[in-house]
């Protein structure tokens, strides 16, 4: 709700119980942030979050990672 110029949010997240981030939990974390359009607004309003696409890289090929996970959210089409 900062009224910023781009519909983009970036957060560092981890699980409170310390579990490692594997592919399945990475998908779970990908839906933890509010819609990226919130970054461009200054007051809350309803917004649909209908389509979610998660692109996994080879970062987890060697197994689950411990610690923090970076989660970027961007609006690339549609309402923006």
H/E element order? EHE
First-to-last CA distance:
16 Å
Question: What is the oligomer described by this structure?
Answer: single chain
What class do helices, strands and sheet pairing give?
A: mainly beta
Low-confidence stretches: none
Based on CA atoms alone, the radius of gyration comes out at 14 Å
Strand content: 15-25%
Q: What does the average pLDDT come to?
A: 84
Question: How many individual β-strands?
Answer: 2
The best one-word shape is elongated
Strand order, sheet with most strands: 1-2
Amount of helix: under 10%
Q: Note the main sheet.
A: 2 strands, antiparallel
- Work out the helix count: 1
Give a quick precis of the structure:
By secondary structure, the protein is mainly beta.
What does this structure look like?
Helices cover 9% and strands 15% of the residues. It has 80 residues and is mainly β. It has a two-stranded antiparallel ribbon. The radius of gyration is 14 Å and the shape is elongated.
